[in-house]
Amino acid sequence: MGATASTALWYASRSTGVVALVLLTVVIVLGILVNRRRSLPGLPRFATTGLHRNLSLLAVAFIVVHVITAIADPYVTIGIAAAIVPFTSPYETLWLGLGAVALDVMIAVIITSLLRARIGRRTWRAVHWLSYAFWPIAVAHSIGSSTDMQRGGLLGLAIGCIAAVLAAAAWRLVTALREPERAALPGLELAAADHAPARTDRVPAGTGAR
Hints:
Layout: H1 2-33, H2 45-72, H3 80-84, H4 93-114, H5 116-119, H6 121-128, H7 130-145, H8 152-195
């Protein structure tokens, strides 16, 4: 009975961790691709924002279950403190420590989001940028702490997540470099109009005003 419960917890911890990684990847990709002036094709701005928020909350839910089942699994003693305080776990100190760092960053983002009206937009935005650091730390934790993620289909999934984020970041960089050029087009058109030769109405030779 105990072995069955331990196996169930192990599968629950692994599966929720994998799902959380995929959800976090989608959230990061959306955050990179969509800024204050854009929305997803076919969706209004408020729907894109709602999708981003709901996926973030769903990812948080899976992370909470992942942490709880990992602590409850009797196969390895992690402890609540080691899940929160980085690099204090005697087991897989580095990789579980990175998981604790990712969890702490997530908690900081959630708390500042709840207190956004009190702490101000600038402080909230500064902390919110940590979510971009949260993702690579979570990826390193996932791959390093789980042998399942180091081979086969799950390794391919992790590589796919990394490729998706890198592709989104590259697209955003190219778009950002092109935006000043697009913004300068109206000015260039006005300058061209100012320097264009003035149009004159000429009277054909041999005719006069009557």
